[in-house]
Amino acid sequence: AFNKTVAKDKSLAVGFFQRGFVHLQLEMYEEALSDYHLAFRHLRQNPFIDYKQLGLRHILYAWEVLYSTAAAQCQLQQWEEARATLEKAVVWRPEGRTAILDLALERVQDRLFLEPMQVPPGEFFRPRKKEVEQLDSKDFLGKPKVISSIIPNDEYIGFEPLRPQKQGFYEPRADALR
């Protein structure tokens, strides 16, 4: 499902983030690391993306993506890269609250694995009701109308400018003008 989601929206950072978590659970560590890198890239230097507007009650923070990236690097035994990634996450953490990252740095120093962050279980994209109601089909053309021609023997169907021109074909009969 996440593959289909990110195929439809290649900039959906939270989609890559969630797929990275699934890859970690499936022990597909290289794919998880790639997804976390894509999620961070699609944050586009923003500290967070608020997905509430789209119907997901979750805010994806850059430091969470970096923390999960470090978790994937730990699984791949890339301890120095994980430490560097966590130090980068400290910069992205808002208001200097870095207790969780300090603990993570200690765990990486001791070569202990990290548990990746995830979107809270049970959170799904649920668009607002008014947006879903607008998805009903609308009749923009209206009802068809039959229009008859005053030109005798007129069997042409189409637009007037596209009609082939014939000499004397367009003069109406005298009784049709009354």
Structure overview:
Helices cover 46% and strands 3% of the residues. The protein has 178 residues and is mainly α. Strands 1-2 form a two-stranded antiparallel ribbon. The chain has helices at residues 2-8, 13-25, 29-42, 62-75, 79-92, 99-109, 129-133, 174-177; strands at residues 48-50, 59-61. Helix 1 packs antiparallel against helix 2 (13-25). A hairpin with an 8-residue loop joins strand 1 and strand 2 (59-61). It folds into two domains: 1-128, Tetratricopeptide repeat domain (Serine Threonine Protein Phosphatase 5, Tetratricopeptide repeat, Alpha Horseshoe), CATH 1.25.40; 141-172, no CATH class. It starts with a helix and ends with a helix. The longest helix is centred in the N-terminal third of the chain and has 14 residues, at 29-42. This is NOXA1 oxidase. GO terms for molecular function: superoxide-generating NADPH oxidase activator activity.
Strand arrangement within the widest β-sheet reads 1-2
> Could you tell me the number of beta strands?
2
SSE string: HHHEEHHHHH
How many helical elements? 8
Largest sheet: 2 strands, antiparallel
Quick tags:
178 residues, mainly alpha, Serine Threonine Protein Phosphatase 5, Tetratricopeptide repeat, two-stranded antiparallel sheet, 3% strand, superoxide-generating NADPH oxidase activator activity, TPR-like_helical_dom_sf, NCF2_NOXA1, TPR_rpt, NOXA1 oxidase
Write the layout of secondary structure elements.
Blueprint (H helix, E strand, L loop, with lengths): L1 H7 L4 H13 L3 H14 L5 E3 L8 E3 H14 L3 H14 L6 H11 L19 H5 L40 H4 L1
Helix pairs in contact: 1-2, 2-3, 3-4, 4-5, 5-6
